[in-house]
Records
---
Amino acid sequence: YQRKWFLDCSDPAYCPALILKGGIGKTYPFLKNHTFFALLHFEPSYASGYEGFKTKMTVGPSLNFIFEWMHSFKTRLELSSGLTFPTEHYWKHELSLDSRYVFQNKVGIALGGTFARQGDQKLSEVKVEGLFYF
């Protein structure tokens, strides 16, 4: 459950939605300890704040690079695009970058940012996350 950004939301800046993310693709190792993967991603979502249909589906390509600098420190770069339907006909383009460091295989911290564009709307986001692995 997270804030979802859509042009046809009753409030495009804040639209909490229930989201399920998935995809199908191929992974390729490159250089030493680094990975590239390409996906066709699917993202159904539901929000009461959506105008018109309350359920939406976003489908599109995603290119991802994971750089493993050391076992406990990784960086991910993602370039993605998606078309949302049934009510929107804008492509949403996103660039995101995040790094995470894991302390003693149980607790970690992640820092990241996203820049997105949909139609003439732009979104910039910075996040800090605490991680707990079990």
---
Amino acid sequence: MRFYPVPLMAVLLLLSFSLPAQQDSRYRLLLKSGTVIPDKNIDPETVSNFNRNALRSNGKASFVIQFERIPATEERNRLKQAGIELIDYLPDFCYTAIVGGSLDYTLLRQVNARAVMILKPEQKMQPELASGVFPSYAVKVAGTVDVWINFSPSFGFEEIKQALQADNFDLLSTSLKNYRIVEIRAAAGRLFTLASYPFVEYVQVAPGEDKPLSQFWTNWGKDAIRSNILGAPLSAGGKNLKGAGVTIGIGDDADPQIHIDFINRMIAKAAAPYNYHGTHVSGIAGGAGIRNELRTGMAPKSTLLSQVFSNVFTNAAAYTADHGMVITNNSYYSGYNQCDAFGYYDGYSRLLDQQAFLFPNLQHVFAAGNSGLFKCSPMPDSFRTVHAGYQSAKNVLTVANASPVGGIWRSSSRGPVRDGRLKPEIAAVGTFITATAPPPFDYYWENTGTSMASPAIAGGLALLYERFKQLNGNTNPKNGL
């Protein structure tokens, strides 16, 4: 019997190639532009090339560093002492980083660094921008596009402002600079130049204007919002919770303070008219039911702070300090309402996640959206329809609309979001809800949508917050938990 070594050699070669490939798959770098596996490149030549060629701003260069494993505290301290600052974690085993001097090959080996790489401009941009697809609302001047940039905390605002203005980029808004976000108008052909700056972490389309989330229905059923045990009197075996001493921020399109259900309980910050949507949402969260007790909101003795849409959370620093705001309700969205835009984690998502650390006693609640009738291939009908930005943040509660007879209402948005996280986290009945309304609706009217489900959760949280304070002897929400 003759022996044929070629098939055996082929198998051994395949095995020898597949084992490193399987090992390397642990080191995927998951970017919005796609997944890459950085080359294992910690050697003297690579480090020398980086030190010689890296683009710098005020002597600082940005890069991505990947480790064989997550670095220990001692290793982080050694990097910091050498002028290397680790900024944000990127899966897997990666960090964005800034170096003020030169990389040291020996140190990188000692801290188990696996790879260093400089991100390309297209890897630091929203994929649609990189491909030249600009939404119409972001093109206000022909040949330009309005964008947001996230800038690195290693650079001061004045530092990046001077660099951008010196290169003739127009700064449109700096209102979110404390969250490291600046709005810029850039020539469409210069977006790659903008993304190349070492201080620019990411470039995205500037979000569109906020829009309320609701669907109008009339002459249907009655509301199905209940908080029976929490709100029932003590004599009936309940907890008699009404939201007293709890401030809920309502970001919406109205200043509803003249409605009788909010007399002496509304902190009016909204420069807005007496609109339907915002008034209805406010009543679900905290209406007093003065003209009709059946229309009492979830937390009828809470204090409501009205503000226009996203201003309720962008002003969180002042509102938490001055008014003890601990919950916000947000029944609106920004940007596109179509499959290409759903579930996208953007600058607003990141801002809200930052606030989870800056204001640990503040909980944001967002309506998921009413786009459940969309068919976003390859997902089944209604899936991956949660709105981008606000609703896709990691540390907010995103709320679906439940049917009074069970299940999720057919128009309610649902996840997953783009990075695979499950959304929404919770559902409430927001179908056929009657609550406060301005003229000509005779004080109360009906509506359906996640806009109605979200304030039910926000109001319910106010009751739980009140109960928590009772149990812990904290009577002043300004003091936190």
---
Amino acid sequence: MTKLLLVLVFILVTNFIQAQSHLESRNIPSKTLKTSKIENAKIRQEKIPIVSIVTPPKNEKKIEPPVVKVEEKKEPIINKELFIPKSDTYISEKDKKVKGNIYSDGNLYCYQVSAFKSEKVAQGEAKRLTKSGFKAYVYKYKSNKTTWYRVRVGDFYSLEEAEKSLKKYNKK
């Protein structure tokens, strides 16, 4: 491949040199140019046009390469909370009050809407809330000798989600 390229360059250079020497040999002294208009016309007709490899001929339009716009790649916004493995089940042993009626086990959040001593009443309340579009469940809690059935809504992944749902619940 390189040999072929060298041969091609050699041929082009020799042709260029021959064309230059031909033009120099055709160079007529200024005394003879003044002799007659007819002789000048003959000389002009005999000129050989030189086509350069580098510059395009005057008759043809120069073709510009298409402009390609390259946009800067923006760094994607990554929510780091999505990559923290979280349990999908609320762990009642780690239950702590966070804010108002909002509780958390460290991963998930929920809020308490009511508490009953009767499990049947608590289940009815949870069923009514579920029909209203809330994810309600009953949480059994023992305090001293009394058992409470707490109705809670949730299992939210953030405090903000729990607060937003609590506002929606308070409006209904």
